[in-house]
# Entry
Amino acid sequence: MSASSSDGAASAPVTPRPASATVMARERLEGGIEVFMVRRHVQSEFVPNVYVFPGGSVAAADREAERTPGLCAPVGEGPTTLGSGFRAAAIRELFEEAGALVARRDGAPLRVAEADLPRLAALRDALNARTVTLLEVAQREDLTLATDTLLHWAHWITPEAWPKRFDTHFFLVEAPEGQQPAHDNLETTHSVWITPEEALAGYERGEFPLVFATIYQLRDLTELADMAEARVRFAGKVPLTIMPRVEQRDGKDVILLPWE
# Structure
């Protein structure tokens, strides 16, 4: 199914925008993991009023950050290698939408003290307002972006039939110790730590709205005992590229996986 122009002729599918999203996870005392999810604003242009993982489009400034010598921790070759912008975008969007900054200072994971909070909050606001870049934030704070801690674990492309499309690489990262994530009250209106199992159960009850791709990603994250098991499950593999398709069935659009 392809998009159509105003004269009814078939047109080429919209080129998807490069994008990144990050599953920030932490271990539970009683076992298992929980993930941080944000609810998109009801007036969002894309998938409004649903719970998602923090993410967004890759910007030119993200690619610049990755190409700046010494700013990012080295990573291996692959579709999200440094220079593509995907990893810097993931870190930036996580800071903008969730307030968590995945970085190191003097070789150690960034620890945020009480006195640091107002300054980092101001930098987060400036990033959201596009008055500073992630590169400038890192340089002001003397940080190295911990791009090597992002585990590339999923790759989804929006269906060809949709007028707004994204080519999104998903990353898994452990929540930075000592930081307190929170939604931004701009693009997102609520946030929650929740187990994948609880999120899916809430969706089935009609209480936790999700979109197609997120449902399948949450299923892939179920039954994990801890972050070590998550790394075993996903590390060392190039994620399968998944582009669902849309078909008309009984007068309704139905989203199907490629193999369905």
Q: What stands out?
A: Residues 86-98 form the longest helix (13 residues). The first strand starts at residue 17 and ends at 27. Confidence is low (pLDDT under 50) at residues 1-9.
